[in-house]
Design goal:
Blueprint: E1 2-6, E2 13-17, E3 25-27, H1 30-36, E4 42-43, E5 47-48, E6 53-55, E7 60-63, E8 75-80, E9 86-91, E10 97-100, E11 116-118, E12 136-137, H2 146-152
Parallel strand pairs: 3-11, 11-12
Antiparallel strand pairs: 1-2, 2-6, 3-4, 5-10, 7-8, 8-9, 9-10
The protein binds zinc ion (ZN) (2 copies).
């Protein structure tokens, strides 16, 4: 499906195609919850990078986490330099994909029948994950990708 997104101040707008648009993937890692998840987690979607079209590129900045004194994470976290909205992550290890934050999407998204809670080991102490009866949770990375989840549940668009 086509996804349309924007930052809060509307200086950055974007569209992309996604075969995997269900917002099921809740990440509680410190980066996601600090940069895009005030409720304790951020939701990462997945789409096709080559279809990403952006208006207002000049208003964006990119945050790359420092891993140590010499290395930066290859994950490039794009955000609006005016209003601070987290927009998407692009990572050179998976260059064909782009991972928009569900919070930046304006299109109606399909409602996931079950959710995955990941990086739960790194959650803030006051956050209690709301686990549905079919939900799965992982201390660190889950055992399936965003694409695998859609395939397992027969939800590929
Ligand atoms: Zn903005
Ligand atoms: Zn995360």
């Amino acid at each position: 499906m086509q996804l349309e997104g924007s930052c809060h101040c509307q200086k950055v707008r974007f569209t992309l195609q996604s075969k995997h648009p269900y917002p099921f993937n809740l990440c509680y890692c410190s980066i996601c919850r600090k940069t895009g998840g005030g409720g304790g987690y951020a939701i990462n979607l997945s789409g096709d990078y080559e279809t990403l079209e952006v208006q207002g590129k000049e208003h964006m900045s990119v945050y790359q986490v420092k891993l140590n004194d010499r290395e930066q994470s290859p994950a490039r976290r794009h955000f609006c330099q005016h209003c601070g909205s987290a927009l998407w992550v692009w990572d050179s290890r998976w260059p064909e994909l782009v991972h928009p934050f569900a919070s930046a999407i304006d299109s109606d998204l399909p409602i996931p029948p079950e959710k995955t809670h990941l990086m739960v080991k790194y959650k803030a102490n006051w956050v209690e994950p709301a686990l549905g009866s079919s939900d799965r949770q992982f201390d660190k990375y889950p055992d399936e990708s965003i694409a695998d989840w859609h395939q397992r549940l027969n939800l590929e668009e």
